[in-house]
């Protein structure tokens, strides 16, 4: 069975227990596969990037037909950190819900709307309205050039600057190191492994450090960062409490010796 996430953020737990470790988040509108029906409250699910953990059923709509249709029709994601979905296309209208960056939504064509607004269909089937500039069409896999992808993933990662560190998180409300890197790629049409390591079967491959370019990934013990060029990298750092920028140059004020001297691998899509 397949399902659609209907909560703003659905936590994925290490065990079917609300008190267990949160290992990932799945955002509104993302689709998942039900791997095991645990009980009336829990299911073990698999994400599109092949992560498997436990999710509370109250966060998802389990329906093959609806999920298949949603996958075909939900063609936009929220690019603003937070976006209110309103009942009418005017700022004074009542709020239906607030979505976070990376949430997937279905855009509805409505030629009569003010160009400032876009009509959207929610997972529930209801119609709402968001600012058009807060929507971005999903990028098909392999549709961008190498240079476009490199530049895009850097800009996407930088858009999360100052987001607080959250273990297992991947939204502007809170994001961890691998959440940041995986979202930077996911929002540009590439699904990479969710954790801080290179895994066979995913598109990131290890390269020599001498080949490092912007958009490539830096791996450390239990940590990952995205290289943005000129010896700088962006990462969600537990030590820094938020998404920030540091340098590999030991003469720079943003140099972090604990990271710069412990790089275990460099990964690249190319």
* SS strand fraction: 35-45%
Q: What's the CATH architecture name of the largest domain?
A: Alpha-Beta Complex
Q: Could you give a short account of the major beta sheet?
A: 6 strands, antiparallel
Order of helices and strands: EEEEEEEHEEEEEEEHEEHEEEEEHE
**Can you tell me the CATH class of the largest domain?**
Alpha Beta
Averaging pLDDT over every residue, what do you get? 97
Helix coverage percent of residues? 10-25%
Total strands: the figure is 22
Task: Give keywords.
3 domains; 6-stranded antiparallel β-sheet; SH3 type barrels; 22 strands; mainly beta; 5-stranded antiparallel β-sheet; 38% strand; endopeptidase fold (from Nostoc punctiforme); single chain; 270 residues
Compact overview of the structure:
With 270 residues, this protein is mainly β. 14% of the residues lie in helices and 38% in strands. The protein has helices at residues 64-73, 146-158, 177-186, 257-260, and strands at 2-5, 9-13, 22-27, 31-37, 42-47, 52-56, 60-62, 76-78, 82-86, 95-100, 104-108, 117-121, 127-131, 135-137, 170-171, 174-175, 205-207, 217-220, 223-229, 232-237, 242-247, 265-268.
